[in-house]
Amino acid sequence: MIDRRDKMGFETPSDVWLRGRGAGELRRRLLGPGALHEWLDPQTLTIELEDYVAGRRPTGPQVWRWLSLESWLQTYVTNPTRTFRPAPVVFRERHRQSAFDQVREPEWGAAPGAASR
Q1: Beta-carbon count within 10 A of 38 CB
Q2: Three-class secondary structure of residue 115 per DSSP
Q3: Model confidence pLDDT, tens digit, residues 7-66
Q4: Beta-carbon count within 10 A of 30 CB
Q5: What does the DSSP 8-state code read for residue 58?
Q6: Which of 99, 100, 117, 98 is nearest to 108 (CA)?
Q7: How far apart are CA 28 and CA 32, in angstroms?
C-alpha cells in the first residue's frame, strides 16, 4: 500500500472559492469589526486581502490563517458561553482531606537510598 504510485492526493480549490463566491464572506469576517483587529492591523489587512482577492498576490495560505484566527477568536475569546469561568465552589458540611490537601516535607529516612544523603 505504501509503495502505490497510482494513488495521489488533491489540493482543495480554496483560492477559487475565496476569490469567487466566498469573497463577500471573506471580507465580512476579516474586515468587519471584531476582535481580529486587536491582533492584526486593519489597514494592512485590507490592503493584503484586496490584493489577494484581485489575484495580485498568491497569499492563500496566509488568508486561510487569518480566517482560522478569526474563527478561533469568535469561538474562544469573544463568545461568552465559551470563555473561561471558574467552577462554582461547593463546600460540604465536612470537608474530607486527601493526601494532596497537605504539603509535607519528604521523609528522607524512609526513602530508598536515604543512607547516602
Answers
A1: 9
A2: helix
A3: 777 888 889 999 999 999 999 999 999 999 999 999 999 999 999 999 999 989 999 999
A4: 21
A5: -
A6: 117
A7: 5
